């Protein structure tokens, strides 16, 4: 049954579905920086609640953050 895949039916450990699922950000225009699970298993707003509280634009996309000067190494 398809709904059983999520729970790893037939898999010895872990969850097959979650372990083999990934999100492709692409251009980042439809991926929200703070709210979507695009880095790790939980949104950045949960991982870094204080930074999220300080953020002026809480609904910024990954593309918008990149255009504002955000880069992989943390520089501008």
Write the layout of secondary structure elements.
Blueprint: H1 16-19, H2 44-47, H3 49-54, H4 62-67
What would you say this structure looks like, in words?
The chain is mainly α and 76 residues long. It has a domain at 24-76. Helix content is 26%, strand content 0%. It has 4 helices and no strands. The protein has helices at 16-19, 44-47, 49-54, 62-67.
How would you classify the quaternary structure? single chain
Mean pLDDT comes to 74
Outline type: flat
Number of strands: 0
State which percent range the strand residues make up.
Answer: under 5%
* Largest sheet descriptor: none
Radius of gyration: 16 Å
Distance between the first and last residues' Cα = 49 Å
List its traits.
76 residues; mainly alpha; 4 helices; 0% strand; flat
Summarize the structure.
The protein has 76 residues and is mostly helical.
């Amino acid at each position: 049954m398809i709904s059983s895949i999520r729970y790893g039916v037939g898999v010895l450990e872990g969850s097959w579905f979650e372990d083999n699922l990934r999100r492709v950000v692409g251009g980042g225009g439809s991926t929200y920086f703070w709210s979507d699970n695009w880095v790790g298993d939980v949104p950045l707003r949960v991982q870094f609640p204080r930074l999220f509280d300080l953020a002026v634009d809480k609904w910024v996309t990954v593309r918008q953050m990149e255009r504002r000067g955000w880069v992989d190494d943390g520089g501008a």
